[in-house]
Design a protein that fits this description.
Length: 512
C-alpha cells in the first residue's frame, strides 16, 4: 500500500510538471508564473514553502521536547506573524512596487529601488551562500521517516527526492511548483490532522495524554510539577526567540517574499491572507502541538544517541501501515514543495543577478530560461551532496542548519526590504549595514559559537537577534548617512499613487 501510494503521488507531480511547460517559456513565466497566480495557489505555495520536514521532524521534535505543550506558541506565531501580518504588511506593497520596478528577484529589487548594482550583487551572494544549508536540511528529516517506513538507505532517499523535484521544476517552473504546492498543501492539512489524532489515541486520547504529560518531570530542566503541560513551558525567553525566528523570519526570506511578486490581483491578496493564515494554524500549530507530547515516548527515545530529530519518527513508528504511508507522503510533500521553491529562487537569482548582468549582458531570454533550468539541477545536486556530508558530520540537528540559514538571510534582508516598501528615507548604506551585520553574525555563530555569550550560542537566538537588530540598524544608519536620490525614490513610490477604478462593493464613494 505504501509503495502504491508513493508511485501514484510521484506520477501526479511529474504529470503536472509536464502539463505546465507552456507557462515556463520565458523568464517571467518560469520564475513568477506570469504574475497571474490566484489566491489559493499563492496561499498554498506560501504555506508549503514555509513548512517542511525541518518543522515537522526537526523543530517540532526538538522544541516540543524542550518546552512541552507550550511549543504550540511557535505555531500560533507562525500563523499570526509569519502569515497574517506578513501578507497584510508586505503583500500588496510588494506586488505593486516590484511590478512597477519590473523585478523578478529580491536582489533586483534592491538594485532598482536604490539604484545600486552592488547591492544586487551583495544580496545575490548572501542568498547563494545561505540558501544551501537550508536545502540540505530538508533531506535529513525526510530520510529518517523513509528509513522508519521502508528501511531504505539514506542516499536512496536523497536521490529520489532530488530527481523528482528536479523533473517537475525544470519542466513547469513556478506554475508547476504552485499547482503541486496546492496538492501537497491539501495532503499536509489532512495528514497532520489525522496524525495528531492517531498519535494521541495511542496514549488514551487528548485528555489522558495531557494528564500524562503533566506528570512528567525532568530534574535537568525543572522540578516544577506539570511544567511540560503548562501555558509557557520550561523556558519562556528561549521559546520567545523560537517564535521570533520562525515567524518574523518569513518577512525577509527571498523564497517567501517572492510569492507576493506573483499575486494576480487585489482579491487574490485578500483571500490569500485568510487562506495562508488558516493553513499555518493547522499545519504549524499542529506540528508543534504534536511535538509537545514527545516526552510521553521518552522510554523509546535516546536523545544522546539519536538526537532530537529521532523524536517525531519514534512517535509515529507505532501507527498502522496506512497512517505511516500518509505521514511519509505528508513529509515528502512538505519537503519537496520547500525544496522546489528554494531552488527556483537560487537559480533565478544566480542567473539574472550575477551571470546575466555581470558576465553575459546580451544573453537572450530563451538562454536565460535554459540557464535557470541548468542551475536548478546544480543547486539540487549541491544540496544533496551536502546533505550526505552533513549526515556524517557533527551538525546533527536539523534546527541548527535552518537557524543559521534563516537568521542570515532574514537578518540581512528583512529590515531593508520592509522599510524600502514604506519609507523614502532608507539609504544604500543602511542596506549594506544590515546585509553585513546579519550575514557576519550568523557566520560567526557557526564558526566560533563557543565564544558567543551563552544566550546567543544557539543559532535560533542569534538569528532572532539579527532580525530585530536590523529593525534598528536601518533607520539609525539612514539618519546619519547620505540621503537617497530624490528622483529615484519618487519614481519608485509613484506606483502607490496611481489611480484605479473599483466597484462600490470594494470601496464606498464619498458623498457629493
Amino acid at each position: 500500500m505504501k509503495v502504491v501510494l508513493l508511485i501514484l503521488y510521484f506520477a501526479v507531480l511529474i504529470g503536472i510538471g509536464l502539463y505546465c511547460r507552456k507557462h515556463a517559456t520565458d523568464v517571467d513565466g518560469f520564475v513568477l508564473g506570469g504574475r497571474n497566480v490566484g489566491p489559493w495557489l499563492t496561499a498554498f505555495a506560501y504555506g508549503t514553502s514555509y513548512f517542511s520536514a525541518v518543522v515537522f521532524v526537526g523543530y517540532a521534535g526538538q522544541f516540543g521536547w524542550k518546552y512541552g505543550i507550550a511549543a504550540t506558541w511557535a505555531g500560533i506565531g507562525n500563523a499570526l506573524i509569519g502569515s497574517l501580518m506578513a501578507w497584510f504588511i508586505l503583500g500588496r506593497r510588494t506586488r505593486v512596487m516590484t511590478r512597477h520596478l519590473n523585478t523578478a528577484t529580491m536582489p533586483q529589487f534592491f538594485e532598482k529601488r536604490f539604484g545600486s548594482p552592488s547591492l544586487k550583487i551583495g544580496a545575490a551572494i548572501i542568498i547563494f551562500i545561505f540558501m544551501i544549508p537550508y536545502t540540505a536540511s530538508l533531506y535529513n528529516g525526510l530520510s529518517r521517516l523513509f528509513g522508519m517506513a521502508f528501511d531504505i538507505d539514506y542516499a536512496v532517499c536523497i536521490l529520489m527526492m532530488a530527481v523528482l523535484t528536479a523533473i517537475y521544476v525544470i519542466a513547469g517552473g513556478y506554475m508547476a511548483t504552485a499547482i503541486n504546492d496546492f496538492i501537497q498543501g491539501i495532503v499536509m492539512l489532512v495528514g497532520i490532522s489525522a496524525v495528531i489524532y492517531a498519535v494521541l489515541e495511542t496514549k488514551g486520547g487528548f485528555v489522558a495524554a495531557l494528564d500524562g504529560l503533566a506528570r512528567i518531570t525532568d530534574p535537568k530542566v525543572s522540578d516544577t510539577p506539570g511544567i511540560f503541560a503548562s501555558f509557557f513551558g520550561t523556558d519562556p525567553l528561549n521559546l520567545l526567540f523560537v517564535v521570533i525566528l520562525t515567524s518574523l523570519g518569513t518577512w525577509g526570506l527571498p523564497q517567501m517574499v517572492q510569492k507576493f511578486y506573483a499575486i494576480k490581483n487585489e482579491q487574490a491578496i485578500q483571500k490569500g491572507t485568510v487562506i495562508s493564515t488558516l493553513f499555518a494554524f493547522v499545519v504549524a500549530g499542529g506540528c508543534y502541538f504534536l511535538g509537545g507530547f514527545g516526552r510521553l515516548f521518552s522510554d523509546q527515545v535516546d536523545i544522546a544517541a539519536n538526537g532530537f530529530d529521532s523524536i517525531i519518527p519514534t512517535m509515529l513508528s507505532g501507527l498502522s501501515e496506512g497512517m505511516i504511508a500518509l505521514v511519509v507522503i505528508l513529509v515528502l510533500s512538505a519537503s519537496m514543495s520547500t525544496l522546489s521553491s528554494l531552488v527556483i529562487v537560487s537559480a533565478s537569482t544566480l542567473t539574472l543577478d550575477l551571470i546575466r548582468d555581470n558576465f553575459a549582458p546580451q544573453m537572450k531570454e530563451p538562454a536565460q530560461v535554459l540557464m535557470i533550468r541548468i542551475l536548478v539541477v546544480v543547486f539540487i545536486a549541491i544540496s544533496a551532496v551536502l546533505a550526505l556530508v552533513q549526515y556524517k558530520s557533527s551538525v546533527n540537528f536539523i534546527a541548527q542548519l535552518m537557524g543559521v540559514s534563516w537568521g542570515a538571510m532574514a537578518g540581512a534582508f528583512l529590515a531593508p526590504f520592509m522599510y524600502a516598501l514604506y519609507s523614502k528615507k532608507v539609504s544604500t548604506a543602511a542596506c549594506w549595514a544590515c546585509f553585513i551585520f546579519g550575514s557576519v553574525l550568523m557566520t560567526a555563530n557557526m564558526l566560533i559559537r563557543p565564544e558567543f555569550p551563552q544566550i546567543l550560542q544557539s543559532p535560533i537566538n542569534a538569528g532572532a537577534v539579527a532580525m530585530l537588530a536590523g529593525l534598528l540598524i536601518v533607520p539609525i544608519v539612514s539618519a546619519i548617512t547620505p540621503k537617497p536620490d530624490k528622483k529615484l525614490v519618487d519614481d519608485a513610490f509613484k506606483c502607490y499613487d496611481e489611480k484605479i477604478v473599483v466597484p462600490l462593493s470594494t470601496s464606498l464613494d464619498s458623498e457629493k
